[in-house]
Amino acid sequence: MSYQIELRHLRYFLAVAEDLHFRKAAEKLFISQPGLSKQIKQLEDDLNIQLFERHNRKVELTEAGSFLQHEVSKNLKELDSILNHTKLIHQGYDGNLNFGYVGSAMQELIPNILLKFKEAHPKVIFNLKEMDNEQQVKGLLSKKIDVGFVRLERLPRNLEARPILKENFCLVLPKNHPIDSANFKGLNQFKDESFILFDPSYSPSYYEKVMQIFDKSGFTPIISHNTIHASSIYRLVENNLGISIVPKSLQSGYNMNIKFIELDKINQQTVLSAVWNKDNRNPALNFLIKNIG
Fold it and tell me: pLDDT for 234-244, tens place per residue?
């Protein structure tokens, strides 16, 4: 069987499959609607299959069309990545890596990893983006990012994880709070205080781990605020609007009127892991994996 299919046919097909509207897809592609319809018809004829059900005011994917959309979308992203790396190699680079990370990973961990990696591979370009855990998982599965730094205990099967930092939690208190490391006896001293915590959506498993700390201390916390940024938590604590619990690595990098008490007598700890997609064929990713952990 011989196909006369070009890359543009597949890109046109994906545009229509996304909008399910020929006129809207044509506008996005900057071509005429009749021209787009002709290209899609040519693709269907070359494959000898029907990809769309066309009605008067409605366009739907056939079962075969849905399958083609899923597979072509996945493999075109791979092709785009290959072409991008080819251009970088031509320009004298070894490739690029797209990082996702939770904020606590940027305090010391990622800078240290990048400095070490940059010494060994100076011609790799880095792109960094702070993302919550769930966004990173989606980005890794779609290969929009190459490696993530997350606080998650359960991951999809396609993802590989390597724990790189296991650490204690810390209490965060205003500088003027009467309790400090010297007179701290246990978390139940704060059962009547308001707590400011990372939002559950930021990482459900991390939030659950923090809730276990309260369960073991015998009380349910009064939660006054949820946020996704450590700086917001610290600003609220600084202004006596509550106290918090954060990973130990978040002690550094902030200059505010707050203090920390390390919770080193409890069983609960938090793990920061480097995570990547097993099917990601980015050659620069293999360089990185060998340099972490």
Answer: 999 999 999 99
